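Reading a protein record of the kind used here takes only a little practice. Each token is a code from a learned vocabulary of local backbone shapes. With that in mind, consider the following protein and its fold in token form:
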Amino acid sequence: MQHIATQGPSASPIFGNGERANRLKSTKFGGRLVNDYWDNLFSAREQGKMVVWYNGTYIPPFFHAHDLAWVHGEAWSAYLAAKHGEIPAQKAGEQWGYDRELCSYARTHIGQALIDLQKLNDGTLGIAPDDPRAETMRKLPAPDMIINAYPYCSSGQQWDDITYRLFGKKVPMFTISIPLLWGGRTDAGYLRGDEWNERSRYVADQLMAMTRFIEEHSGRKYDFDRLSEVMSYVKRAAELRLEAMDLCTTTPSPASFFDWIVSIAPVNFLPGDQNLVTYFEGVKAEIQQRIASGEGAVKDEKYRLFFDGMMNWNKVGWLADKFAAVNACVVAGRYTHMSFWQEPQLIDLKDPVLGMAQNYLICPNNHGAPIMIGEIEKICEKFNVNGMVMHASRTCRGMTNSQFLIADSAKRNGRQALFFEGDVADESFYKDELLNTRLEAMIESMDAQRRAA
């Protein structure tokens, strides 16, 4: 089949209607919050704040409660990729010997630490000194502490070990072990069983040890009342988010996976304050208004899809429009609908640490495959999903390892599935023609399935 290269997602006959995704307007407020976060971080030194570099799960409430500034390594890499400014950092990492197959989040963040500012300033790094990307590269403050809290991903743990060495082994580092929930015991299940209870307490004890580490290196006593206050906003925001997601079982869906993708920052790494609650109140209100008026995230919605895999941050808007152009609404995904304070009711605001530990444990990749796939199937049934889109992120093995099992389960339950290769932060791995061809084939299969039914 011949595909003619054109601008935008219409490189195949099935993309000919030119429809664009009807993205939520309320998410623009989140963009302002993200920009404010980075602006405050870039000026942390001037504000007299200590800076923590951390990777992994959503532990910033512990930093916020102690008035620390924090750099989330994945968020920094995604930020650069979304602004198409990741290449200088990635090149610096590659020139130092870090292979392109290494997690591109890690490679980008490590590359940032390796950038020679003198070369950046005199224009010999391969980027002009007056290029806006160069200005961004100059701004990231160095760490006073490094904290790792990575579930499921060994690369994430090694990432911080590398960072520790890059800074001369002089920056104090603390590592939280978040063990896998294998689910092999007879009483094991989602949020239940001896394994669940034991590992919940194990992670909570480490979080308490982390607060003592923060006390030691900041010279200040940890304020647990302040942590409870911060978590009150996070918990309410998480509740509103889940309520808004549940409204999208409506047909047509008033919001899509791509709206939830751009809504991750508020429940992942932004400060826990009233802004988070206001943001998700606005998102929920807009979704309710769309339901009342019959407005969908995709015009003439015909297909409802599940997106499995990390997001390709270089291609968020591009992919949203691509699926809209074939009247397909991606209604849910593993990354958005099974992570990020997914069980807020577990958090007791009088003593939030155990509930926080439990939310960290239920990162979907942290479950044994039977339990994880069972939860995915529940979501697909709930949202009336017809097909699954498997983004095989080239450098994120932790997210892709189980995808063939997930796709097999989907097919056994009458859903079509496609695979396409891309990456979280390295745009060079994405091939548009490949996704076009496979999406076209899946649409044809779903249509044939409907005719047969």
User: Anything to note?
Assistant: The longest helix spans residues 194-218. Confidence is low (pLDDT under 50) at residues 1-8.
